[in-house]
Amino acid sequence: MAADIDIQVDASEFKALLAQSKAFDATLATALRRNVRNAAKDVAAHRKADVLSGSYLHNVGLRAAIAAGIGVAVATGKNPGVSITASSKGLRGGRWGDHSAGLVAAWQNAKGFRHPRFGDKSTWYPQTGHRYFWGTFEQDTQAFAAAMQAAMEQARDEMRSAVDG
User: 112 and 128 in contact (C-beta within 8 Å)?
Assistant: First the structure.
């Protein structure tokens, strides 16, 4: 499923523009990163809403913990880009204990996963996974790419107007 999702705003173009904006004006580079992060936060917010939604009342705590671990990162170094990730930070220290690291991935798995119910390790029960993380990306691809492009064009326009001004 991951191969079907291709959000491409030329990373080399972003890297070059970021380097130019840093050299031109540090506040412009900060604004560019902020605008890109805000565009990604919209996608992350939709992802959190999908995780928390549902007509079923079970796994409410688990879904809230998974939603708490969804975050955005803008990399500006050697390999620039935007990442929207789901970590197990919302699960740590909770009732899931040592299994928290793999639980986000297991919950996303379409094949589902097995677990002992109420600590009964003699019998393992299957549970269906939920495809939380791809639907929103497919829905938000165009909007995110347009917002990313707009942020880059705004930075480029500000540099041009300052030079021409």
Answer: yes
- Is 82 in contact with 40 (CB distance < 8 Å)? yes
Domain extent, residue 60, equals 10-164
Tokens of 5: 């999702």
For residue 5, tell me if it sits in a domain.
Answer: no
Contact 42, 140 (CB under 8 A): yes
Q: Report helix, strand and coil shares of the chain as percent, to nearest 5.
A: 60, 10, 25
Tokens representing residue 114 in the block: 């097995």
Residue with tokens 């705004």: 154
In a domain, 137, yes or no: yes
By percentage, how much of the chain surpasses pLDDT 70?
76
Length of the chain, in residues: 165
Interacting residues of 23 by C-beta distance below 8 A, sequence separation 6+: none
State pLDDT tens for residues 43-68: 888 888 888 876 666 667 777 888 88
* Amino acid (one-letter) located at 71: G
CA distance linking residue 65 with residue 135, whole number of Å: 20
Q: How far is CA 82 from CA 24, 34, 35, 79, in A?
A: 22, 11, 12, 10
**What is the model's pLDDT at position 116?**
76
